[in-house]
Amino acid sequence: MGVDLRNRMARRAAKEIEPGMIVNLGIGIPSLVSNHIPADMQVMFQAENGVLGMGESPEEGEENPMLCNAAGFPVSIVPGASYFDSATAFGIIRSGNLDITILGGLEVSEQGDLANWIVPGKRVPGIGGAMELAQKAKKVIVLMSHVNKHGEPKIVPECHLPLTAKACVDIIITDRAVIEVTEEGLLLKEVMAPYTADDVMKNTDVPLQLSEQVTTLS
Amino acid sequence: MGVDLRNRMARRAAKEIEPGMIVNLGIGIPSLVSNHIPADMQVMFQAENGVLGMGESPEEGEENPMLCNAAGFPVSIVPGASYFDSATAFGIIRSGNLDITILGGLEVSEQGDLANWIVPGKRVPGIGGAMELAQKAKKVIVLMSHVNKHGEPKIVPECHLPLTAKACVDIIITDRAVIEVTEEGLLLKEVMAPYTADDVMKNTDVPLQLSEQVTTLS
Amino acid sequence: MQKGTQKSVNKLGTRDEALFHIHDSSTLMFGGFGGIGNPPTLIEAILEKGIKDLTLIGNDAAFPDIGIGRIVSRGLATKLIASHIGSNPVAGQLMTDGKLEVEFSPQGTLAERIRAGGVGLKGILVDVGLGSMVEEGKQKVMVDGKTCLLETPLRAEVSIVYAKKADTFGNLVYDTSARNTSPLVAMAGDYTIAEVEEIVPAGELDPECVVTPGIFVDLIIQSKGVNWTWAWE
Amino acid sequence: MQKGTQKSVNKLGTRDEALFHIHDSSTLMFGGFGGIGNPPTLIEAILEKGIKDLTLIGNDAAFPDIGIGRIVSRGLATKLIASHIGSNPVAGQLMTDGKLEVEFSPQGTLAERIRAGGVGLKGILVDVGLGSMVEEGKQKVMVDGKTCLLETPLRAEVSIVYAKKADTFGNLVYDTSARNTSPLVAMAGDYTIAEVEEIVPAGELDPECVVTPGIFVDLIIQSKGVNWTWAWE
What we know:
- The complex is a heterotetramer, with two copies of chain A and two copies of chain C.
- Chain A has helices at 3-14, 86-94, 130-136, 197-202; strands at 22-25, 44-47, 51-55, 76-83, 100-104, 107-109, 114-115, 139-143, 155-156, 171-173, 177-182, 185-192, 208-217.
- By secondary structure, chain A is an alpha/beta fold.
- The model of chain C is unreliable at 1-7 (pLDDT under 50).
- Chains A, B: This is 6-acetamido-3-oxohexanoate:acetyl-CoA CoA transferase beta subunit.
């Protein structure tokens, strides 16, 4: 997926973030989201290793190699930041204090089940913090390509891959659409140009409800 | 019990403490023990509220009312001290990092069972940290009067009062004797003048083994 | 600071805002140990408002005229979950008279139960208290062939703590041994109020030395200081 | 400092004293997260001595040429208990080839299992991982009518951590996010070795800012600093 598409997804995800929220970003496309937050919006970004209040990436040469996000990339801190151990970091997550987590995904089911940590026999697995984040954040946003590299839908009736957590996903943002997980099923809210609602439905393995007004994002 | 007797017991208990040890003192007579440690001996005193490295009582007027031992009396700190929360304080205790705890007692059994937290219907109870301390310290020393106010032995075949912990006591120091709890039973090691080994045995409800040399302490 | 962020990012508030969250029959958890670290201004406010039928959770009942003991000894609590009440004979009398229900936990177990509530654990297993009255009514679980007691997490509708300094985001540092149970209690409240000696702008506390991350704090109020005489004085 | 106190109160030692405690087949727990906070000088010493058949416990397998990953990718460990090995493909290959046994825990569960080992809890109950592969083989316990997973504590014969400063008693402070799992790991070792950037006399660290109380540390050695290139460099 190209940089433009990735950034469009990240920009769309950034719109879900409101001032004052506590947010945890996963690795991959989710890590781009912080670039799309208005500079004057106060958001506290949290990392599983033990930081609350991460700021932008430091200038080259200004990095403190010890001060990194959970993916190991150097960060800075904002006023009001604090450091703590990983047990406290997950205490924040497990007790439901995260407003939003934005994660990558391999499959999402009609019920909002998420699979994103293992492809048995193919990828080296890593649970990492995904289970706590998916299960406990107030809002879970999944950023992923709409179809896999074989062109098959990643939004499916039931996940085939081992689950990260059941019924946890609130919003799915792909390179083609924005879909909300509701009690009545999946709701197509927005499509990304040049795709149409029809394209999206054809490439989704689950019937989609149509929002009253399906917006098209450019 | 008079101040002299209390101090004699505390002085005797202090002899069990070796340089470099981590020690927790209970309230009452045990709290006097620190007065009998040589000034140049490095011992780290721990308190359940969350201090390691307590020093002597501050001068009158020099107290920080926030800096207290677990009994609520102002203390000072020594170099190398640290503050932490009560969960960490008990983490230190529960994981077996205390070398010695010195506690008060209501009853001690032949097996080293300790009862020291409740007299049902008579005293306002308080478990406090007694269970963790008694069960987990490497060495448990009990300081108590040899008989209760009715003149009845407090060293008994089985405790009648609700237990603090089973088989936890290593040494009993009373106003009359020093008694070790061994696998073969209770061993009378020292008697406090003017009492004799005979006096002690008559006022103990359990047969005492006699140490090869029963020392008399003045 | 921009519009809309005020509420979440600047948590400075008033005594009345604090009282808005504490009601008759509330479950209230308090930081402190033997009165030290009990928040005096919040306790005074609760007494003035005459809030009653409280369920209190904390280390101990302090002393009759000190700290949380002032609430207990005036009969404003119907239940207390604590590790001891030995220093508050009024609490003992209320318990004996059947006017105060007291649930005792060993002190370290209580601290871990509060922490478990704060960090979202569903329970902890301990061997402390086995063979004592403490095991009565508790579920036993075998771990590696050894019997353990299942101790349940504790949370409260409102937690109140006392700290030395807060920044406007709610990061807290404490004062020596007044830290005691407060960092645990701060995590375990659905709504956590910190009464502090000194309030500073975000960025003024050393992030390495913050003890309670501000995310656990919902409201900060200025302390008027201790308004009782300590037992040793 | 008087005779006899040297050992317990001044814990400053050498690389060779540290190696004396780590053997073939030892269970070794390490602080760090993605390589950050792994102790470089101790890892180099283990590599030089060629210690093998280690059981490693820690957050992750770092990268093949970074931190603990250097030990894993050279085949010196037979077992790893971690939350992920995604950043170390060599570890993945060894696992696939049956040369490395890997036990996965969710990251927060792993942190709490290590903490539980450190503070003497016999187990913790969580609902994280219910309905996933993580629940396989684990004891389930009902708490208040809800199913929980019993997660067991982790301890090790030796724990190794990296810190920014230590005093001679072993009190530790860390460097920003390099703190991560280290304070937990430091508590959970039967013998804990801290590799530190700077060693100061007891009394020079602010007791309010100590993160790991010295009681949990048995030996302090001077770090020679990181001897690898970070992935982002």
